[in-house]
Specification:
Length: 298
């Protein structure tokens, strides 16, 4: 009887599984089509920008414009490489400012997030809201007082000063991310470390930092992208050609003859400026996704 029952149940179960699989196929196809459509919309400007960057200058300024180049040329990239102080000068300035921003941002956000996540602080939530409040203030309103303050401190027209400005703009979000990252770590690990006689600093260094690597990488990646792409404060704080960053170079390189826009050189500069962000994101993608999921499930 058992054998007969099993022989009856197995075909029924297989039928239910095949029916569920058949019903899920249209949904998967629909999700796939939506993903392809969104990816196409997102990638189209980059592809069109690259095609414009490899056009000869005459083709790039045609009106109406053509999407596909009639001939291939690297003259726009050569123009960007040799522009004024040289492309490497602008790239090195941007890399230096972004690296300083990451270091300062992590040096402040990691202990702040650890303290807010793990220590009993009076009115902790109130302090946390106060730390996040600058996110509601347009950063353009802060640039004039910051410039006056930094000028008196001798930090205007310096890469360190610009990195400090970028850190100020990025710090509230970084603290928020680090707090979530540390709160997602089980308290049992902290209690075990206290039983073993570890101090708060030893617990942070030996247990929390290794487990919070995805959150740290996410904060660092956001700080890099924000610093790399920031234009207005770099324009205000920097007044020497050799100190300019890549966004300022893009504004200058687009100037063509008689006030026209050199679209080919501009698109070549944009493609060059995008590459570091894309490469770093691809290298750190798994940490980036994990960092955003920290604290989502407790």
């Amino acid at each position: 009887m058992t054998a007969i029952a099993e022989g009856t149940v197995r075909p029924v179960a297989a039928e239910h599984v095949s029916r569920a699989a058949g019903e899920s196929r249209p949904i998967r196809y629909l999700v796939g089509a939506v993903c392809v459509a969104v990816s196409t919309v997102m990638l189209a400007p980059i592809v069109l920008g690259f095609l414009a960057s490899i056009k000869p200058a005459a083709d790039a300024r045609q009106s109406p414009p053509t999407y596909l180049p009639h001939a291939l040329s690297l003259e726009n990239y050569f123009k960007v490489f040799e522009f004024q102080a040289g492309l490497w000068t602008y790239l090195s300035n941007s890399l230096l400012v972004a690296a300083l921003t990451i270091v300062i941002c992590l040096a402040l956000a990691v202990p702040a997030g650890y303290g807010l996540a793990r220590f009993k602080i009076p009115f902790k939530e109130v302090w946390f809201i106060i730390l996040l409040a600058p996110l509601m203030i347009p950063y353009q309103a802060l640039l004039t007082p910051l410039y006056l303050t930094f000028s008196k401190a001798g930090l205007a027209n310096s890469h360190l000063g610009l990195a400090m400005v970028h850190t100020i703009l990025q710090l509230p979000f970084s603290i928020y991310m680090m707090r979530n990252a540390f709160e997602s770590i089980p308290r049992e690990l902290e209690e075990a470390a206290k039983v073993d006689g570890s101090s708060s600093w030893q617990t942070l260094r030996s247990i929390f930092l290794p487990l919070a690597v995805p959150g740290i990488v996410t904060v660092g990646l956001f700080a890099f992208i924000a610093s790399w792409n920031e234009f207005l404060s770099a324009l205000i704080f920097m007044n020497k050609e050799t100190s300019f960053t890549v966004p300022i170079m893009l504004v200058s390189v687009r100037a063509g003859r008689l006030g026209s826009v050199d679209w080919g050189a501009l698109q070549a500069g944009v493609i060059i400026a995008i590459l570091p962000c894309v490469l770093i994101y691809l290298l750190l993608q798994k940490y980036y996704v994990a960092g955003f999921l920290n604290g989502a499930v407790k």
